[in-house]
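seq:
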Amino acid sequence: MFAAVCLTLMLGYPVAFTLAGTALAFAAGGIIAGVFDASFLSALPGRLFGTVNNATLIAVPLFILMGVILEKSRVAEELLASMARVFGRLRGGLGISVILVGTLLAASTGIVGATVVTMGLLSLPSMLQGGYKPSLAAGTICATGTLGQIIPPSIALVLLGDVLSSAYQQAQLSMNIFNPKTVSVGDLFIGALLPGLLLVALYMVYVLVVAWLKPEQAPPAEQEPVPASELLKGLVPPLLLIAVVLGSILVGAATPTEAAGVGAVGALLLALAKGQMDFSRLREVSRDTMEVTCMVFMILIGAALFSLVFRGFGGEELIHHFFEQLPGGVLGATLVVMLIIFLLGFILDFIEITFVVVPIVGPILLAMGLDPIWLGIMIAINLQTSFLTPPFGFALFYLRGVAPDSLATGAIYRGVIPFIIIQLSVLVALWMWPALATWLPAQLAR
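struct:
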């Protein structure tokens, strides 16, 4: 079934319909051959109703709406201009500005493609004109764009948190724990803070080291000092909005869904205050939000059907047995899953992997004793690295689509390699010291 999905995707068919169509074709073949019980399909309506009735997933369209409003209202553009004028006179200062603004944009949109494209359009011409080495400029933008996977409030973490919550309860019930603990999207947000900030810090250290050792690759910009009033005008509103959204989740004042509603309304008020929102733009924002939301939920429906048929053929028991036979126990099983997810990240987006792969392998790994928050952050950073890795990384394709022809594809590939090494280092550190992801949630739960 997985091979058929990958082959069909390579032929160019949409992901959602590929998942559902492949599942139905295999189910029909199995029924005809007498190896698939058709009663499995009767569980599909209940699953779909549970999906659309899930309060946690309401956060998805609201976070998408927040990100689209900030993108269309040119908040990111003003933020980058303000940051560039603050740091631009330092060697590597423009690169630091791109990383900081990209981090804030990742926190507000949570979508890798949107962040890479926006930063590519806004900052790549400035970096190239400022004398930055093309590979360094491209690598910085691509790596910063993938932070949307790990910097909360990330849509990837919302979806992953919902799936892991179900997988964790399922794992506990399989161990005869009939009063199961829960893990929430908020727990995953809190757990992602330290690894996410560590990645941002290491990105900035790398750019500063390059600027110090090879000044010609990241020269300072010749700019006038920025007035404090102009700086505050560009920086404070988006920072305040993100602080309110994240802060309300961290202190327990709001659920991620409620915080997403606050973020969407706050972004709308911010756009109105800047005079960047009228009826035609609101209609454009609503249409873009609806398209992305429909894409997410159609993939979710297709994935639900795929996993149902996969279980009907005994696939889950097969994988469970395979993991039990692996040398190295839980460590060996985790390594294999991480490698599979990394490779699937070349051909599938995080949504498909979250809804197809994680529900199958998640309960098995969690039943082996893994911490759900640690596993979720490991998967998120793993996918982030996959999206950055040549030759198939999604972030590379997004930047190639908006970059000028003068920027060679080879320069983009070379530029991301140091950032891939940084992300792999953080992944290894998280493997060695799980407390990087689990310490803060444990402290705030007290």
